[in-house]
Specification:
Helices cover 26% and strands 34% of the residues. The protein is of the alpha+beta class. The relative contact order is 0.15.
């Protein structure tokens, strides 16, 4: 149903999807142009989901440590895309030997929180740059 392609961060379709994600989260890219970029260390891959020749979703995987990998910049523009992107990213994380998949969402983003919780993620201690954030909900899912 969806075709997944691994892309470079400079892929125009990915940049467009990052912009749509920022819009959906209420971020003004005029005020925060860095929201279009992604430069955190440990990036493993970026994927774009395609349907009928249109980019309809995306997600990134970033290595947190030797056993854990984090989902970043997950976005879908239509029902079902998020599940397909997540399934692809989970498979890639397993194939790289990771034991745990991490995800974060802003507390006010109930749609993302519910999505991850419905997909088997559970609340976990805050990690990395989210350690001192009161606005972020950290989750994990075992990959065994």
């Amino acid at each position: 149903m969806y075709r997944m392609t691994e892309v470079e961060l400079t892929e125009p379709a990915l940049i467009t999807l990052f912009g749509k994600l920022a819009d959906a989260l209420g971020n003004s890219l005029d005020e925060e142009p860095e929201k279009l970029s992604f430069n955190e260390a440990g990036l493993l891959l970026a994927v774009v989901a395609w349907h009928d020749g249109h980019a309809v979703g995306c997600g990134l995987l970033r290595k947190e440590d030797v056993n854990r990998v984090e989902i970043k910049r997950m976005y879908s523009s239509q029902p079902g895309v998020g599940s397909a992107v997540l399934q692809y990213l989970e498979q890639k994380a397993r194939s790289h030997g990771f034991k745990t998949l991490l995800a974060t969402a802003r507390i006010i983003n109930s749609k993302a929180l519910n999505f991850y919780l419905h997909k088997g993620f559970k609340k976990c201690p805050s990690y990395g740059k989210y350690r001192y954030s009161s606005q972020t909900f950290c989750m994990e899912k075992p990959l065994d």
